[in-house]
Design a protein that fits this description.
Radius of gyration: 13 Å
Helix content: under 10%
Shape: globular
Number of helices: 0
Oligomer: single chain
Order of helices and strands: EEEEEEEEEEE
Length: about 120
Amino acid sequence: QVQLVESGGGLVQAGGSLRLSCAASGGTFSWFGMGWFRQAPGKEREFVGGIRRSGGSIYYAEFVKGRFTISRDNAKNTVYLQMNSLKPEDTAVYYCAARNNDYAIYVYWGQGTQVTVSS
C-alpha cells in the first residue's frame, strides 16, 4: 500500500516562501512519477507541476513558473515543492500524487497540507 504524507504547509505573508515535502512509503519511490496539485475553496483541484521518475524532466503549470520549484530525492523517498514569491491566490490545500510511470494517471494521493497566504 503506497502512502504519501505531505508536510510543510502553514500561514505566510504575500511574497514569502514555503517548502512542502511529500514522503512516500510502501512502494519503490524511484519508479513513481510524482506530481503536485492544489485545490482552493470553491474551486476544482488543479495541477501545479510534476517530475519524472529520474528527476530529469520537470514541468509546471503556467501560473507557477518562475516561482515554484519541484525536486525529488529518491534516496529519501521524498518529493519537494519550493514555493517562492507567494501570492494570496496561491492559498489552497496542496496535494502530492504518484503514478506508476511517467505517463499513467495519478493513482496515489496524500491527505493534503494547507497553505494560506495573507495579503
